[in-house]
Amino acid sequence: MRINNCHNTNDFRTLARRRLPAPIFHYIDGGADDETTLRRNTEAFNAWDLIPNVLAGMETLNLSTNVLGCQLDLPLFLAPTAMQRLFHHDGEIAVARAAAQMGTIYGTSTIATTSIEEIGACTTGPKLFQLYVHKDQGLTNDLIDRCKVSRFNALALTVDTIVSGNRERDFYTGMTTPPRFTLGSLISFALHPGWSLNYLLRKRFELANVARYIRQGTDVTSSVVEYINSQMATNISWDDARRIRERWGGPFAIKGIMSVADARRAVNIGASAIMISNHGGRQLDGSRAPMDQLAEIVDAVGDRIEVILDGGIRRGTHVLKALALGAKACSGGRMYLYALAAGGAAGIQRAMTLMRDEIVRDMMLMGCKSIKELDRSKIARRTG
Hints:
This protein is of the alpha/beta class. The protein has one domain: Aldolase class I (TIM Barrel, Alpha-Beta Barrel), CATH 3.20.20. It is 43% helix and 13% strand. It has helices at residues 9-19, 22-29, 36-43, 91-102, 116-122, 137-149, 168-173, 183-190, 193-201, 224-231, 238-248, 260-268, 290-301, 316-324, 334-366; strands at residues 48-50, 65-67, 70-72, 76-81, 106-109, 127-131, 154-158, 252-257, 273-276, 306-310, 329-332, 379-381. The chain has an eight-stranded parallel barrel, surrounded by eight helices. The protein is globular and about 60 Å long.
């Protein structure tokens, strides 16, 4: 199977599973506990039905939108995800360049394997930095200041990861960063020589943004869970979020909002946007899906702050449903990580082109010439 034979997210997932050693694939694919929320994130879209109009005189389409001060060619961007060089040796560079080619935002993580400076230098496309607040306040401040120097467009503070979720798949596979070579993992790595040789022979693996500050950035022998639990601040508050926004001084999102009360607090501290997200079902299992919370949050604050739906996106119709309920844009992680693992930059380019083509086709079938025409009259909640 090759990327040209991939026609949807599930196809890229299948190919990624073939190309990655088991511990690495399951790190992408897994969620917390019983993975109930992981499944709900996508299943929640099925509770809503689109209502098309016909004979709309369709000729040209406008998919553009403005989010976090960035003009985008489509209402979908690449959410920040960690350690992308684990999934393909080109990692964050490949993802950033693919995003720029598609005219959309690339989000990079605090615990990326390519530095803020390298990302800033490799692309002129719109860039968002996802900030984790570490116990070392100097590290956190340094990350913000480096993003300013490297001309990132926006900052997103992740607020749902003060401790790690119980990601049991990682325990079973022995997933660490870098990978710990157990008997079970050695067999899987041996069966994937292309990945293993790239990992061993190319640029040394490190968490590039934090390596200068903490040993775990350059010599990580603990699991991802242990890293989060040992390094992340657990006492962050809304006052901290306000101080971070003020230090940054540019478009600022809070990622991990799931309640109306917190959405209102984000407005009160002057955030530019909220990302309705449960961290891809990797944190609190049994929590609501972002799509289930979207309408209520939009009704409460949508006229005062940009609302972004993050998580579970697998189809163009998922994006249309979110926009019809009032989201300004959508973002996703697994949808492009599978493609990165399957084929690097070419895989992401194909996956995002397919997604754009789906959105265009679905807009045509909806009778909507612009995403601004997607509103509550175009969607209904399934009752049966």
